[in-house]
Amino acid sequence: MKKKSILELERLSTEQYQQVDKLHFIIVLDNVRSLNNIGSVFRTSDAFLVEEIYLCGITATPPHPDIHKTALGAEDSVKWNYFANTIEAVDKLHSLGYTVYSIEQVKDSISLESIKLDRKQKYAVILGNEVKGVQQEVVDKCDGCIEIPQFGTKHSLNVSVTAGLVIWDFFKQLYL
What we know:
- There is one protein chain.
- This protein has helices at residues 14-19, 35-47, 65-71, 74-77, 86-95, 136-141, 159-174; strands spanning 25-30, 52-56, 80-83, 98-103, 110-111, 122-127, 144-147.
- By secondary structure, it is an alpha/beta fold.
- It starts with 13 loop residues before the first helix and ends with a helix.
């Protein structure tokens, strides 16, 4: 097998990408500290046609060299918006008809592998701070919580890894 060259990949330009229909799917970052994690979420969101990213609280915004280091330009292709308070973002999403889930470990959470999505519905998922997770007041405003099953000794995943798993799962159900 021969690896494909950059030209053989036939990727869209940023301008072409911005014209492509996206999923009705928004990622919300609730006080995410790591600029590399933020950049990684941008890059994964670009790969799987996420409509927009909401950056909330202390979450940094582009342009920033450390975001760019992992986003590799996806911060220019994926639409984003900043909210000083994540509750404001959730309220806006609800007013626009989105079903909003936190990715969090709570009583009665929905396991990621068992969630059933409707292609006619609009969704948003909230990913939390690397140490504290999604704020409780934000969890309280959501329509539900999704939990990623884990079977080892650790109780959490890196936020960018979590984003990748969730975005891929939503993409499979909403696009493929």
